[in-house]
Fold:
Amino acid sequence: MHADLLHSVADGVATVVISHPAKRNAMTAAMWRALPELLPGLAADPAVRVLVLTGAGPTFCAGADISSLTGDDDPQVLAVAAEEALAAFPKPTLAAIRGFCVGGGSQLAAACDLRFAEEGASFGVTPARLGIVYPASSTRRLAGLVGPAVAKYLLFSAELIDAEHALRAGFLNELLPAGRLAERVAEFAGILAARSQLTQAAAKEFADGRTGRDAYWTAQAAGSDDTAEGVAAFLERRAPSFTWTLT
Structure:
């Protein structure tokens, strides 16, 4: 079957689907290149308030499809470029995970803001099986997410861990019973889409350790109607209608 990145937008949520069922959604070189090309358009689309990344069928992503690489392709360069583009996406991102989330799949999931998984999912960071030096930026992101001890456990051993272990380690935000993932992701993405983009964009920068724009966000807050709208909606017991958008 064809390998591709599929995407759609509905109700404020952009859904990007990793689709390569013949290889458990392993990313081809073309798919790695396509992700950084796709994301800027979704980021600039005012109809998009949240991004969900998932895999087609019963698995998320089993890593890189080595058979798709040519002599000119460096799989680590391709994977890091896609990972960094996803991490830099300025709106909330959520990985919806079933089945295998391994190697490059774990890189993509770690680059998202949030990760929800279904029971039975498996996670692994596997360069030690191949004698590959895991990229420094990816190692730092993983250690920042799960802590140095768990990052070393995963990187040193290249062993897979189950979803319960990933939840305890802090890699996952939520673990859902079988059959509940799509429903919960849709529900939570809808919650995110209804919240203030101003709050989310500033919080994402601050939480990710990006500094130097405190004055910018103070000015954005001062010039926005979001705070007044949020307070009024609370007092009037209605849903707020926030108007600030990324430009």
